[in-house]
Amino acid sequence: MTLWAKPLFYLGDNVLYILADLGRMGIFLVAALAGLFKRPFRGKELLKQLHFIGVGSITVVFFTALSSGMVLGLQGVYTLQKFGADGMLGSGVALTLIMELGPILTALMVAGRAGSAMCAEIGIMRISEQIDALECMAIDPFRYLITPKFLAAIISVPLLTAMFDVVGIYGGYLTGVKLLGVSSGSFFHGMMNSVTNHDIQLGLIKSFVFAFLVVWISTGRGYFVLQIRGAGFGAESVSKVTTQAVVLSSISVLIFDYLLTAVLL
User: Fold this and answer.
1) Which of 20, 35, 49, 200 would you call most buried, defined as having the most Cβ atoms within 10 angstroms of its Cβ?
2) How far apart are CA 21 and CA 103, in angstroms?
3) How far is the C-alpha of 253 from the C-alpha of 256, rounded, in Å?
């Protein structure tokens, strides 16, 4: 191969790999969603995943929300006092949390805690041939393993986001009103006058989309652990793919946050 042809070869090779990977993930998504309509549905597995993804993430989401709200309260008072507008603190804290920080930070916390675990679980089952064994027994691995995780994430993440918003607003109230002396009436009056149904719907739509992205990427990376370039073999491959799943989930959440805001705002 000539020197000038090597870059073209590597470029074409990488493009083909990316297209093949996108195709695999697309087929994986269709199979996972099709599992919703197959019977018997695994209700106990759904409850188990709801407990793991939803209940298990409450602590990290709670403390992330409280610290974010308290910091917003501090910075909000510092900034708004320069313009004599500290009465707008409630409006600023609530809108920031409901439209942006709530959906984003909740999705990132779930991706780091539950997404990585789901990817590792599926990846280990793949390399130890447990998924192959399910297929040999005529058990659909998507209905058995993947679909309950999809459904649990799509139910849990919006509820966690709602909890994040409430706890974050309380954190902003605690700092701004109780510690720094902003009027309690102006805090709630500004919040109630500025937050609309459209703002709440935007945050809700984002949380659904982010949940979908996190569970799709996390389970898909684990399922295709043996086909991902550079992942290696055995435990090393699961480790690398788990890291990749968290990074891709986080980047996807941030990209889709901008796209959804641009389209729906």
Assistant:
1) 49
2) 27
3) 5
CA angle 101, 76, 210 (to 5 degrees): 5
95 vs 87: CA distance, rounded Å: 14
Contact residues for 230 (Cβ-Cβ < 8 A; gap 6+): 240
Structure tokens at 53: 């993804």
Burial 246-260 (b: 16+ CB within 10 A, else e): bebbbebbeebbeeb
**Residue 246, both tokens:** 């968290």
Reading the chain (265 residues) residue by residue, the pLDDT tens digits are 676 778 888 888 889 989 998 999 999 999 988 888 877 778 888 999 999 999 999 999 999 999 999 999 999 888 888 887 877 888 899 999 999 999 999 999 999 999 999 999 999 998 998 998 988 998 888 888 899 999 999 999 999 999 999 999 999 999 989 888 888 888 888 888 888 999 999 999 999 999 999 999 999 999 998 888 877 777 888 889 999 999 999 999 999 999 999 998 7
Residues in the chain: 265
Q: pTM for this one?
A: 0.90
CB atoms within 10 A of CB 156: 26
State the Cα–Cα distance between residues 121 and 158, nearest whole angstrom. Answer: 24
**90, 61 in Cβ contact below 8 A?**
no
Per-position DSSP letters for 189-244, written without gaps between them: HHHHHH--HHHHHHHHHHHHHHHHHHHHHHHHHHHTGGGSTT--SHHHHHHHHHHH
Contact 108, 170 (CB under 8 A): no
